[in-house]
Amino acid sequence: MNVFGKKEEKQEKVYSLQNGFPYSHHPYASQYSRPDGPILLQDFHLLENIASFDRERVPERVVHAKGGGCKLEFELTDSLSDITYAAPYQKVGYKCPGLVRFSTVGGESGTPDTARDPRGVSFKFYTEWGNHDWVFNNTPVFFLRDAIKFPVFIHSQKRDPQSHLNQFQDTTVYWDYLTLNPESIHQITYMFGDRGTPASWASMNAYSGHSFIMVNKEGKDTYVQFHVLSDTGFETLTGDKAAELSGSHPDYNQAKLFTQLQNGEKPKFNCYVQTMTPEQATKFRYSVNDLTKIWPHKEFPLRKFGTITLTENVDNYFQEIEQVAFSPTNTCIPGIKPSNDSVLQARLFSYPDTQRHRLGANYQQLPVNRPRNLGCPYSKGDSQYTAEQCPFKAVNFQRDGPMSYYNFGPEPNYISSSPNQTLKFKNEDNNEVSDKFKGIVLDEVTEVSVRKQEQEQIRNEHIVDAKINQYYYVYGMSPLDFEQPRALFEKVYNDEQKKLFVHNVVCHACKIKDPKVKKRVTQYFGLLNEDLGKVIAEGLGVPWEPVDLEGYAKTWSIASAN
């Protein structure tokens, strides 16, 4: 089977060199100048094997390095045509194949997949219009809301630059960063609860976290957040069990999913969106561009639109999982726009850029990343499409570079006046609009109604964006940051879950080497709930000294706004 789920014709397999010619000698025998002499430089079989071995690893992902995945099928069960003209969300019953990758965030590829950490859940849908990605996490919020903090946050999850020890040995850096950036409290309240240690990739949820903007054919915007919910509920491990498995079975989740699919199980997820109008967004208590906040379900109920079924294991991990490249840029297909969430905006650059570094400038031409669309029949009479047996039918002006498999032949690499250019331009209805993209662009394109609509959008965005800046401190801390996690801890967690939460925090934070950081951890949670801070202080064996929000900020000083 190839990455698109199609059966390939069986061929005789012959051991050969990379040039395709059969190799007539034994693969394990080098060529020597004489029986007791040195090997020969002319032994290109040896040279080819050693050179390939030296280069057979691509750089590890900086984040989400530890992971695995499988093939899937997406089905649209309910149309979203009233809020978006995006092609995959129109016709009920539409199906397409895809691929999903599950991962932890902070650890290297050799770290345990049961570690307490968020899980990345990234989907690639091979639609006939092009590749469409969802790049989600298994928590609906994140540690930060300002893109500039992302690199340093990830650094704080990695190994110490001097000792090279990670947080399994010393958690000082981990908690030092979090307590100096209190907007992280919502994510931490989720992560040190049960959901921080999922029992199964196939039995956990996934969320966009970010707000996206769906646009319908009338040009009306609707903010949306995606939710992908497991059919079996969110199964979790206790912190102690997860820690035990980290030592005895570090690939526990990966092995579990592989075995499930091998045994014929087909785990299923239901797909939903929450929707919010721009008018609602201006009245919403929080900013829709704040990645540390959720949309309450009572105000913005879930609307089902599809299902995802995990179908089978991949045939080759490296080719289909290690080389697969996801990006939020592929979420933003015609009919879906990114919001002004600064972290999302940065990800639009970062994700494709890291894949260009890892896999090369033409990484989207690799089979697992190649779109199957635009008239590439897999076989005669087959209505399905694949990019396995044909070059791109899509054309753009990106050319050359390493590993350029399909360079668009004689097509000019600009909009040409030549009648021989076969390049076409189409709109969202798949109708040709070539004239619109040729010649001089006239000002009349920006009609009065369009300008009026854009001005209304700008007005709403100013109100939404301003909500993020309404904080006590420029550094990014507000009483609002504690409202939702406080409700989660006090109203959602039951007594047993609260005890486990304290146990999980104490077990992790007890590895802090710096007493000042350990004390700040207790105050960090004390801002959420004073009794919680006190009991964590008792567990860590440090004095309990509660502070208010302003006092907390002053414990490490307040920087100038300039």
TrEMBL record:
Cofactor section: heme
Main location: cytoplasm
GO molecular function: catalase activity; heme binding; metal ion binding
GO biological process, one term: response to hydrogen peroxide
Residues that hold heme according to the record: Y351
Domain Catalase core: 16-423
Top class in the EC scheme: oxidoreductase
Quaternary structure and partners: Homotetramer.
Family: Belongs to the catalase family.
Protein name listed in UniProt: Catalase
Organism name: Saccharomyces paradoxus (Yeast)
